[in-house]
Amino acid sequence: MANAWAGEVTAATTSVEPLPMAAAQGPSPVGAAVPPSLHSLPGNQAGTDAALGPLPPLQGNRGEEIYSLDIPDEGIIGRYIGGLLAERRDWLQAVLSRSNRYRLVIAAEVAERGLPRELRFLPAVESGFQTYAVSPRGAVGLWQLMRNTASPYGLRMDQWVDERRDFMRSTEASLQKLQDNFNQFGDWFLALAAYNCGVGRLARIIARYPDADFWALRRKGVLPRETAAFVPMFLAITRVLSYPGRYGLDISWDPSPDWARIPLEACVDLRLLSRQSGVPLDVLASSNAELNFPMTPPASYQYVLKVPHEYEQAVKETLATASVPLMEFNIHVVKPGDTLSGIALRYHVTVDMILEFNPRLAPRALHIGTKIMIPMTPLRSEGS
């Protein structure tokens, strides 16, 4: 669902679209021709990353391209690379830049689970590394999770949060989903296909062709059209983003953020926290994109605020200052004819939100003169 308060962000729509085949012979990478074959070796030979260990040289134009997946020499992958470079180079550059914000978090989770490191690029084809991305079918977040997919993996989706937009929690859930797919199908390309079209649908296809791998199923034309494009597109993007310097993309040398997690003992208004701590509101908002309002849930949620490490001390010091109010409320005095649903509508909140902050309130027995605490949402704060 679209974020209810990040007015400056427009929810994106995402889909895997076949690239124009006329671009199949698009420009070759800078400094090297597209290799005729790809390589899968157990280790990498240059460069380091704290989460991943040794990595291939990102900007080097020499040597083999080294992957942990056994990527086949399928012509469609090269054609997609050509199309991307010819038609969507600016998009690739934007995706590469956005990915830096989440690179260490995703890479560390991939490494901890012992999964193929190429999976860290899956959000590129899913959402373009945009936490607020929403597909026409309602998939949300970096990893484009549907509600029925996210719920079994413990992601919370309610009036306060949609954890499909939480880049940490959604990464954990999505990688577990991919691991479960692999455990079922025994093949990473089939696991990726199932991530796109659904486990049940792929299982029914495989039941008809039990000896076929993904590429054989693709050649038979029995896969959904989007899924047939999804896996080779993912591999094409993986090749480019693994070695962006070879493909003429600019690489930022800014380090990927190191994230701090700060447990909260009460509901916090991010607008007040920003003003009191000096941390930019857009930093607090984008770091906690799962929030449906610029305020964290009540204490019962045990919410953990995420901020880049450089802001950790300022936030902690502000939270520790007892004199600083970090939540703003309206006080509504119950009048004749008031109902809880009517009060909620008036203040642009939900009944559940009112009850969270007024635990002794009896919804069906409102007494005239009772004072009710109403959390101030952006709509109410702006006087609408």
SSE topology:
Layout: E1 39-40, E2 48-49, E3 53-54, E4 66-67, H1 75-87, H2 89-99, H3 103-113, H4 122-127, H5 147-150, H6 167-185, H7 188-197, H8 199-208, H9 214-220, H10 225-242, E5 259-263, H11 270-277, H12 281-287, E6 304-308, H13 312-320, E7 329-333, H14 340-347, H15 351-357, E8 371-375, H16 378-381
Features:
single chain; 384 residues; mainly alpha; Lysozyme; Membrane-bound Lytic Murein Transglycosylase D, Chain A; 3 domains; two-stranded parallel sheet; two-stranded antiparallel sheet; 7% strand; globular; disordered N terminus
Q: What does the model show?
A:
40% of the residues lie in helices and 7% in strands. It contains 16 helices and 8 strands. It has a two-stranded parallel sheet with strand order 1-4. Helix 1 crosses helix 10 (225-242) and helix 3 (103-113) packs parallel to helix 6. Mean pLDDT is 83; it is low at 1-59 and 380-384.
